[in-house]
Every structure is written in structure tokens, then in C-alpha cells.
Amino acid sequence: MIGKLRLKFILTNMVIVIILLSILLGMILFFTRVRMEKDNIQMMRDIAARPRAPMRPADSSNMNLPFFRLTVSKEGEILSCTGGYYDLSDEELLYQMVKEADADEAETGIIDAYQLRYLKHHVREETVYVFSDISSEIRAMKGLITNCMLIGIAGLGLFLIVSILLSKWAVAPVKRAWEQQKQFIADASHELKTPLTVILTNAELLQDEGYDKKEYHRFAASIQMMGQQMRGLVEEMLLLTKADDSVQTKSFQRLDWSHTIRDASLLFDAVFFEKNLTLKTEIKENIYVRGDEAKLKQVAEILLDNAQKYCKEKATTTVRLSRKGRQALLEVSDEGEEISAEELEKIFLRFYRIDKARSMNHSYGLGLSIAERIVQAHKGKIWAESSNGVNTFFVSLPCEPN
């Protein structure tokens, strides 16, 4: 899929470049030809304007091609012929050229057989014919066409290389999303495989009449527990996939972030007390942010839930909220096993868990991914640090004025 997308990107770029180069080089060729023709015709008009004076190219700055001039009477007799570049002794040839020029009523034209451009200028009862050699003009245009083709080929080659390099950069987000999607499906399948196996095994055992009633209750309880675990996983997966869509900026409003953090902390007081843990709060008053209050409260709840799951026995978790310049900084610190630098980089990935055994305790490695999505939607940052046996999660959000 990614390869086809890159190929489509490259082909689209090349088609656009070919069209633009064709237009650009075509315009260069067209205007160059028009300019050369215009200059040549102007030279011929200057020569025709002085029908009696013998002229050579050096006599006029506009003259840049060999030419000759014929003056023909009304009866068709050649009265004079001038020009220093041609042998004008063959009168039959001269009459033939005059005949071909008269075959067209236009003022100017080209005699292809001799590579001559002619101009007819009527003066009283005489007609002045000026013939100009255009072989050098034709050669110049052929040379220009060749150069344009070489430039076009070189340009296409260069743009092809650039397009190939750009395609890698352009499809990188798509590739990353595609890989994340595949990884998400693989991880979800792996997480669901174990409880499904347990459920199917216990269901088969329930069909065996050789067990007593106590065993049947144990099998049923196991099925129920695995079913609840699967439901919890599916709910978190759905919550993660809807995290972006559910956070609508149009629903954002100014809210008391201090009050929201305090409410979230109060919800977990009983949880920490039941586990013989301590929850401390250091919340500065009147810190306001703009956003979805329910979603931001969910971020705080995720961090507090992680703290009570991963902290040491009889440890203390501290919730701090302060203002740092134009940012509201939330810190949730707990005393627990130190997290390595490598794990700190992966901790916000889907399904990543430092302690794999936590999956049996309804920890699926999705909470921090959900929190990250919500914080990013609020134009904030979330990260984690670990040192001296204290793990701290930070959430920074833009402040609103009091």
C-alpha cells in the first residue's frame, strides 16, 4: 500500500512537472521565434524603404542576415537588383522568386525551397522585393529546441530524484499511521487471545459432567472474570479510537483547572486509603485553562490511577498544580520502581506496559495513550521523568488569564 502511494505521489509530481516544463519551454521557443521573425521583417522593411540606395548589412544595426533586393516594374520587368551576398546573374531564378512571392497576397512569406523570407513593398508603379536568408534563423531555432529538450530531460531527471526523496517524507506520516494501525490490531489480538482461550477452555470443562458443583462454580467464575477483562479492554480500545473525535475544540470553554484537579483527587482519596497509600495535593488556586472539562479531568484520573497501581507499598503520591509563565503545569509524582530512559520513550505507546503482569489487574497499556491524545488536542504537552525512586508525569497546558 505504501509503495503504491509513493508511486502515485511520484507520478503526480512528474505529470505536473512535465506540463509546467512543456508550457515554459514552449513559451521560450514561441517568443524567441516571434522576436527573431519580427527583427528580420523590420530589417527588410528598412531596406525596402530605400529602394534606390545600394545597401549592405553594415549600413543598418537591424540587419543581421544576408539579403538581396529586387525592384520590379509594373510590367514585371526587373529594373534593379542589389545585394552583396548572392550571385544575382541568374535572371531566370530571380524571376522565379518574384513569381513565387506574387503567388501569395500576403506582404511577407517564406520560400521553403530556398530558405528565404520575402517582403513586398509597393512604391508608386514599382514593387520592391526584399529577400532575406533565414537559414541561420532556422539553425538557431533548431539549436534552441535541442537545448530546451536537453534542459527538459535534465530537469525531469532532477525532479524525479527530488520527487522520490519527497515521496519518502510525504508518506512518512501515512506509513507511521499504517504501522501503528497494524501494531494496534496485533496488540489487541494478542491481548484478547489469552482471555478468549481461558473462556473457551472453561466452557468446555463446564460441559464435562465429571466435575462437582464446586468446580463448576470455579469454571463459571473464571469465565466471568475473563469476560470482564475483555470488556474492559474493548472499552478502553473504543475510548482510544474516539479520543480525537470526541475532543471538539468548538466545545472548549474557560474552566477552573485547579477545581478540576481537586475534584479528581477527591475521587481517588478512598482508593489510596484502602491500599494504605498516601495522596497529597499542592494545588494553586485560580489557575484557568481552555478546554473540555470532562476530558481534562479524565487525564488527571488516568495519571492518578496509574500512580495507585504502580507505586510502592505505603508510598506517597503527590499532585501539584502550579503556574509556570503562561503554562499551567500539573505534576503527579509517585514513589515506585524507577523507569529507565528507554521505557520513558515508549510509555505512551499503545499497549505498552512496563510490568506485563499488570494486564490481569485491568491495566492494558492504553491509559497514557488516551491521556496523550487528549492533551495534544488541547495544544498541550505530556511527558514523564524518573529519578531517585520517584516517577513524575507532567501535563503542561496554555493558561487563561484570571
Q: Mean pLDDT, nearest integer?
A: 82
CATH topology of the largest domain: Heat Shock Protein 90
Low-confidence stretches: 53-64, 356-362
Which sequence of SSEs, written as H and E, runs from N to C?
HEEHEEEHHHEHEEHEEHHEE
Helix content: 40-55%
Number of strands: 12
Compute the number of helices.
9
Structural class: alpha+beta
Straight-line distance between termini: 51 Å
Largest sheet: 7 strands, mixed
Structural domains: how many? 2
CATH architecture of the largest domain: 2-Layer Sandwich
Outline, from the CA principal axes? Answer: elongated
What is the CATH C-level name of the largest domain?
A: Alpha Beta
Quaternary class: single chain
Report the radius of gyration as a whole number of Å. 44 Å
Proportion in β-strands: 15-25%
CATH superfamily of the largest domain: Histidine kinase-like ATPase, C-terminal domain
